[in-house]
Amino acid sequence: MRKSIFDLLERKGKQPVSMLTAYDYHTACTIDEAGIDMILVGDSLGNVMLGYENTLAVTVDDMIHHGKAVVRGAKEAFVVVDMPFMSYQASVEDAVRNAGRIMKETNCQAVKLEGGVEYADRIKAIVEAGIPVVAHIGLTPQSVNAMGGYKVQGKSLEQAQKLLADAKAVEEAGAFAITLECVPEALAKMVTERSNALTIGIGASSACDGQVLVYQDMLGYNAGFVPKFVKKYADLHSVMLEAFRQYKQDCENRSFPGEGQTYSISDEVLEQLKKEETERLLFKKVI
């Protein structure tokens, strides 16, 4: 049975929640089989799946396309789908309409949107429309240009005060969970202790009620930059690269496909085919 909001909230202060991203059916199946509690169909798909420089080019249609596949693959995990850039920023009406479309077309269990005080009215309206919301504060990738890059948030007094105000605002607006990204441990601990919402950290320490990572990062799926907060549980890039190189070599030296990957035909059938072909050629010459 799929996990519910109540199942997750019961874990607060007791047992941390696990969350990973997924963007396709097969990965969602595997993550679900591992027993991960929550799956995020993140707009990070812009970076890791579509090759964009950042998340800003991702569309609602992109999120729905990938969200559908993930929901089909996950039978027990609670699935959250990101609301991409400019799907909620312009107006409350846009926010509710796009959140409703995402939930209706993907059959996910919640949507996630970035921002605190300034978008609390969007969260409130979406929740009132019957759609669960995960808020996202701290480092918000959709605001990367305004923030001047991907930087730890909350280190100054002003930033820390802003983050605490954001956490309070999104919880009061109805968000059942709050993602804290790139936030100092002490500040994440304060938010977690003060909030009834579930806090989910990414670069925000184990003080949070749960953790989320981009699965390509934690699996070492590529050889590029990996954030400090990522723990690599595997080195799939090296494994895949070696496999692809071996495949290329086997193709070129004809060792693949080998006997084990090849289908056979009986000698009797083959001899009959040869006989018929010989007779056909002889007949053609006579003609």
Uncertain runs: none
Strand order of the largest sheet: 1-2-3-4-5-6-7-8
Write down the CATH class.
Alpha Beta
The biggest beta sheet is recorded as: 8 strands, parallel, barrel
Question: How many DSSP E strands?
Answer: 8
Radius of gyration from CA coordinates: 26 Å
- CATH fold field value: TIM Barrel
Structure explained in plain terms:
The chain is of the alpha/beta class and 287 residues long. The chain has one domain: Phosphoenolpyruvate-binding domains (TIM Barrel, Alpha-Beta Barrel), CATH 3.20.20.60. 45% of the residues lie in helices and 14% in strands. The chain is built from twelve helices and eight strands. An eight-stranded parallel barrel has the order 1-2-3-4-5-6-7-8, surrounded by six helices. Helix 2 crosses helix 4, helix 4 packs parallel to helix 5 and helix 6 runs parallel beside helix 8. The longest helix has 20 residues. The chain is elongated. The model has no long low-confidence stretch (mean pLDDT 95).
